[in-house]
Fold this protein.
Amino acid sequence: MTPPRTPALLRLLGLTLGYVWALPNTLLGVACLPLVAVSGGRVRFERGVMELYGGFAAWFLRRVAGGAGAMTLGHVILARDRPMLDFTRDHEHVHVWQYMCWGPFFLPAYGLSSFLCWRKGLNPYLDNYFEKVACAQHPSSGEPPARPDEPSVG
C-alpha cells in the first residue's frame, strides 16, 4: 500500500511559507548581490535559489568565512567559484531546507551548535549538528574534482 500523496496546493503552500520564513536570512544573502556584481562575480538561479560566485563572494568566503568554499544564507548560496558551486550545490541545498524549517532561528541555532561543539573540544564545523545532517545526505568536503578538460598540476 502506497502512502497518500500530498495535494499540489498543500505542497505549494508549504513551499511558499518556507520561502517567507527564511526571508530574513535570504535578505542577508541578497545584500551581497551588488558587491558580487561590481567585483566581477556572477549570479545565476538554480532550483529556486540565487547563486552568487566569484568576486566579492570569493573574497568573503576566504577572508570572513574562514576559507569556506560555499555557504548558504536562506535562499542564496555564495560560492568561491563555479566549480566549487557545482561541487557543493546539493550539500548547500540541504542548508536551504534547514533555513526553511528554522527560519530566522537558523543562524543562532547554527552558532549555538558550533559553540557547544567547541566547548566539548569537538570541531565547531564538522561536528555541528546542521553540517552533520547536510554531510550525511551530500558530503562535499575538500576541493571539487578536476574536470577532464583542465590540465593537471604537478
The two ends are 57 Å apart (CA to CA). Residues 47 and 93 are 9 Å apart (CA to CA).
